[in-house]
Specification:
Chains A, B: This is Acyl-CoA dehydrogenase. Chains A, B: InterPro entries: Acyl-CoA_dh-like_C_dom, Acyl-CoA_DH_CS, Acyl-CoA_Oxase/DH_mid-dom, Acyl-CoA_Oxase/DH_mid-dom_sf, AcylCo_DH-like_C, AcylCo_DH/oxidase_C, AcylCoA_DH/ox_N, AcylCoA_DH/ox_N_sf. Chains A, B: Its cofactor is FAD. The structure is a homodimer of 576-residue chains. With 576 residues, the first copy, chain A, is of the alpha+beta class. The first copy, chain A, folds into 3 domains: 148 residues, Butyryl-Coa Dehydrogenase, subunit A, domain 1 (Orthogonal Bundle); 119 residues, Beta Barrel (Butyryl-CoA Dehydrogenase, subunit A, domain 2), CATH 2.40.110.20; 141 residues, no CATH class. In chain A, 55% of the residues lie in helices and 10% in strands. Chain A contains 19 helices and 10 strands. In chain A, the strands form 2 sheets. In chain A, strands 3, 4, 5, 6, 7, 8, 9 and 10 form an 8-stranded mixed β-sheet that branches. A two-stranded antiparallel sheet of chain A has the order 1-2. In chain A, strand 4 and strand 5 form a beta hairpin. In chain A, helix 6 crosses helix 9.
Chain lengths: 576, 576
């Protein structure tokens, strides 16, 4: 079994839960087109990309001092991906794209990520860079750099971090010196640049944060630059690969230390306004954060599916009431604790995927002018980034455990999927950063409008949840408590900002659980009319499981938050 | 910084918490001897073993079809270990050992495991095999095989699992044919044999579970055999290495598929009575399970110490109230969420280590004839095996997270420590097996005496806990609830065994949290008189943290257990 994703669940999420059909109609497409794209993604993920995922992990990219060597399977697979039209799928028709809903594009992307996350990084980084140029690039920049990205000929990167500044972007040192021709020369060292160096495609479009000398200190002095690997005259720009990082997982994708300007300055072009680079980059980063969450979710789903297959095939032991040891052993899925582990993994991974695709649908709604979607995305983005990174990753951990000793070996894919997924709580803003974003910015912005929008949306589900009264009542009570506790916290935020933020990560996990509980309730309700009775029963059971086994963790978390516990805040560094 | 273990904490645990001095006195030793041994272990771990831990991971053992190749650092380090007398430390003086308390031996072992877990596997497997021979071997077997183990010249293995039977030992197929000279010939395939093949030392003593034809079915027909790699006449026994398993971590130790008897039968000698092999092996396995827990704990401690060092050195960002971005960045330990992560890791790893060393002290008390210690070990062994494997492992996960992107690279040791530790929830009985052992056997045996002994022991601490009233009252309430819920569950165990056992793993986590909460309270109380005020404040703060942030998770778990929730039990395989 390929065990990449479950096409039945993808179809359920897109059509029964998230209304893809309406989004297709609004953009001039139809379900047949969408189904064709999804089927192609599934087939290519299975036939072209999954087969070399293990090899890409075992034989990680190698830098010989001059160029980077990838395993030979990568480039042809990327070409086939481009030839099938995937790079163009999400871009507007005005930019040469197909103008498909973001929700559909994300679902298709899920197949590639789950099949081979290292491979998928290359086209998705190109797409992210393209999205930014589509929104902020000049017509000239679009013609020269966006068009070939849409055609799948150019790749892209996001160059934010530096060795001394990752989470603290205010402290980047890369500088951009203005030139008389309107271009800039960049000087500085960038770190953790995925896809930063390789020989595929015709060019790499680096999007680089740098400071123009004389600008304001901190984040207000950051500008964004387009720095191509290859200049228009065909010569190489002054961007040098200093080295590759050797990672725990995610090894198919090069991750680079890049030096800009060692030989006189890397040629760069300003994107957007000077000193407005961080706001521009955040446009891209919000989608990148949804992408990280979704990557975590689909890797978790893949791990869960592998574990499920194994649990149905591997025999071991007997029913606890069976005393006759000469009877045949039973598949381990028959053991209650294995079933509990599978249910936990299912509730985490499928819950995470529902959340991420829901967020993707909000991006479509926002593009269509839905103001509520903007508020929902504001409050949900840190959760969409973090919750799957923590809990879908646990599905990968459970997948190892279900396989027993075999799961700990490299003969089975589950340990690799775990290692691949372990990056997700770190990049695009660590979990701690997401907690600060949620509680320090999103909860307090617009007088609390984002959280109110979320609780109102949950309330709408509760009104139509008479089929699941136990879960409806539990979630209703929880929503009330979240509102109360948040108001209590917010009341002291101004005079005690450190106390307010001390347990931001706990708040993030708590609200994440509430949101995923809501997703499970929505799934259980939507599955009521599903023609596949087993599928519907599985969704109902996983919903029940999540409400009984997982959601109650929010109780102690809310107690902590209500008490504004200062145990960690007041611990001194010397005590450790 | 080596960051292997914290000698200050080891000394605190051994002397202030667990009364090593009395155990030393009872066995005719003194504190100076013990301190010398610990200092030697610390120095050798740091100077000899830690330096090649990363290399042993990167260059895992290789099998060329004839022999196994280890990196050249391993053998001299093992020789130095033997020359320092460590293999003899724990054995009785009658067997040529030093007769030191098990508690002291375990603490010394902790230094080696934390420094280089793959290396440490070799001597510890020899020690486990030696312990079994000391308890059950004939005088002849002891002279021929135990003595050279005590001298550090022979190594050992435990051969239980087979490809088709790991958790289900009843289903092993290896058979032992009796010979006229009283020996046996063994035929069968064994799997997951750590240290099963290498060229170090003079011999490897395999302890092998097999069935004598004609015996009872299931576990009642299992016997234990001593199968040496090299026979007395110097020829090789019929034990063939079929292949090495390639693992996620723990790579320094060979892990083997071994075939016995392909060329006519492997010569084996019965240890103990026929058909009583599992009981004999369990003697060894109980100590092995304590060893697994302790291995998990010390790897967690090492990860925590690395994270702590990094958090004190790495600067990033500023205080949340600091608006001037031109001020210098602060060490990340100044950020509340990093401090929360460190506190969580400390509470898990140091709590786990206290639990494991406490269990080691119970082994000493049991040897000295303390009946309560036997009851406490019965109930605690599954917890000692499982809780550190789950939660000290999370300390390794947190250590990666605190390091950010750097923690995800192989340039820092924290990702390797995570991979090494991930084995521990699997081997020597998976977590699911431990839950069944706890709830299905230990809780119900002797009319509930083991659990009563545990709750009584906790009660004794509570009586002397006036210095920590918040924690005392919380734990007292919890202990009462554990008793009630367990009685409620036990009342239905006979008529509904499947329902009773359905949430055994939840029970295991719940009782584990209670026990570790108790350990933290004991540590906080014992630290009151500690001369190092920072150390004492750290123990108190971590105790408070564990009670406020972690222990409340038991509330929802106890609710689930009280309800005897059947959500997972009643989910059908086709629903997944």
């Amino acid at each position: 079994m390929p065990n990449i994703l479950d096409p039945r669940d993808i179809s359920f999420l897109l059509y029964d839960l998230l209304g893809l059909e309406a989004l297709l109609e609004a953009t001039g497409h139809d379900r047949a087109t969408a189904d064709g794209i999804l089927a192609t993604a599934e087939r290519m993920a299975e036939e072209l990309f999954q087969p070399f995922a293990a090899k890409a992990d075992a034989e990680e990219p190698r830098f010989d001092g001059t160029r980077v060597h990838l395993i030979p399977e990568t480039e042809p697979a990327l070409k086939a991906y481009a030839e099938a039209g995937f790079p163009a799928a999400g871009f507007a028709e005005a930019d040469g794209g197909m103008g498909l809903p973001y929700l559909l594009c994300q679902a298709a992307a899920g197949w590639f990520t789950a099949a081979n996350v290292g491979f998928a990084a290359y086209p998705f980084l190109a797409q992210a860079a393209g999205n930014l140029l589509a929104a902020y690039g000049t017509e000239e920049q679009k013609a020269k750099y966006l068009a070939p990205i849409v055609e799948g000929r150019f790749f892209g990167t996001m160059c934010l971090s530096e060795p001394q500044a990752g989470s603290s972007l205010a402290d980047i040192r890369t500088r951009a010196e203005p030139q008389e021709d309107g271009s800039y020369r960049l000087f500085g060292d960038k770190m953790w640049i995925s896809g930063g160096a390789h020989e595929m495609g015709e060019n790499i479009v680096h999007l680089v944060l740098a400071k123009i000398p004389g600008g304001p200190a901190g984040t207000k002095g950051i500008s964004l630059f387009l720095v191509p690997k290859v200049l228009e005259d065909g010569t190489l720009n002054d961007v040098r690969l200093a080295g590759l990082n050797h990672k725990m997982g995610y090894r198919g994708a090069t991750n680079c230390a890049l030096n800009f300007g060692e030989e006189g300055g890397a040629v760069g072009y300003l994107v957007g306004e000077p000193h407005r680079g961080l706001a521009v980059m955040f446009h891209m980063m919000n989608e990148a954060r949804i992408g990280v969450g979704q990557g975590a979710a689909v890797l978790g789903v893949s791990g869960y599916l592998h574990a499920l297959d194994y649990a149905k095939e591997r025999t071991q032991g007997r029913d606890v009431t069976e005393r006759d040891v000469t009877t045949p052993m039973v598949p381990i899925i028959e053991h209650a604790d294995v079933r509990r582990q599978l249910m936990q993994a299912k509730s985490y991974a499928e819950g995470a995927l529902a959340l991420c695709l829901y967020a993707a649908s909000l991006v479509d709604r926002e593009k269509a002018g839905d103001a509520a979607a903007t508020q929902l995305l504001a409050i949900l983005t840190p959760i969409v980034k973090s919750w799957p990174s923590e809990f879908a990753l646990r599905a990968n951990d459970i997948a190892i455990q279900v396989h027993g000793g075999y799961g700990y070996t490299r003969d089975y894919p589950v340990e690799r999927l775990y290692r691949d997924n372990r990056l997700n709580p770190i990049h695009e803003g660590t979990k701690g950063i997401q907690g600060m974003d949620l509680l320090g910015r999103k909860v307090v912005q617009d007088g609390g409008a984002p959280l109110r929008a979320l609780l109102a949306e949950i309330g709408a589900t509760l009104k139509a949840a008479e089929a699941m009264p136990e879960e409806r009542d539990a979630l209703a009570a929880l929503v009330g408590r979240v509102g109360e506790v948040t108001m209590g916290m917010a009341a002291t935020a101004a005079q005690d900002p450190k106390g307010y933020l001390a347990n931001a990560t706990v708040y993030l996990d708590m609200l994440g659980h509430v949101v995923v509980g809501w997703m499970w309730l929505r799934m259980a309700l939507a599955a009521e009319s599903h023609p596949d009775a087993d599928f519907a029963a599985g969704k109902r059971a996983a919903c029940r499981y999540f409400f009984r086994y997982e959601l109650p963790a929010t109780g102690p978390w809310l107690d902590l938050l209500a008490a504004q516990d200062r145990t960690c805040l007041e611990a001194e560094a010397s005590w450790f």
